[in-house]
Amino acid sequence: MTEASLVWHDAAAVADLAEGAVIGRTCAGTAVALYRIDGAYHATADRCTHAEARLSEGEVAEGCIECPLHYGLFEIATGKALGGPVGRDLATYPVRVEGERLLVGLPGG
Ligand code: FES
After folding, report:
1. pLDDT single digits (tens) 22-35
2. Engineered SS bond to 90: which of 1, 30, 44, 82, CB 3.0-4.6 Å?
3. Could you give the maximum distance between any two Cα atoms of the chain, in Å?
């Protein structure tokens, strides 16, 4: 995915996302989970690759998100499936800050 093929979507206010937190948003029909880890912003798909639970309802710990349904574990920065019943990695999306807003880059059409 090249930068040129991305479409940037307004996803949330910077103030909506506390350190160590995750929030769920829908951007152009795509469910996105937004995270703030050590001051850096990340975004992944907000559907677990195991049985589509909402990861934004899970727990963030040590740079990972734990699925609330069967406790699958993913590395937030890379989307890598790390443990539990999950075998497929999560999609990840770039995030940028513009003023007080967080924008998520999704693949263009
Ligand atoms: S739905 Fe996430 S681990 Fe099963």
Report:
1. 999 999 999 999 99
2. 44
3. 39
Establish whether residue 58 lines the binding site of ligand 1, counting it when its CB lies within 6 angstroms of any ligand atom: no
Residue with tokens 């800050």: 97
- Domain span at residue 88 reads 3-107
CB-ligand 1 contact for 68 (6 Å cutoff): no
> 11-25 burial string, b = 16+ CB within 10 Å, else e?
bbeeeebeeeebbeb
**How many domains are there within the chain?**
1
Cα–Cα distance measured from residue 103 to residue 89, given in angstroms and rounded to the nearest whole number:
22
Measured CA to CA, the distance from residue 88 to residue 78 in angstroms comes to: 12
Both structure tokens of 4: 């040129």
104 lines ligand 1 (CB under 6 A): no
Q: What CATH number does residue 73 fall under?
A: 2.102.10.10
pLDDT tens for 49-97 read: 999 999 999 999 999 999 999 999 999 999 999 999 999 999 999 999 9
Ligand 1 center to residue 76 CA distance, Å? Answer: 15
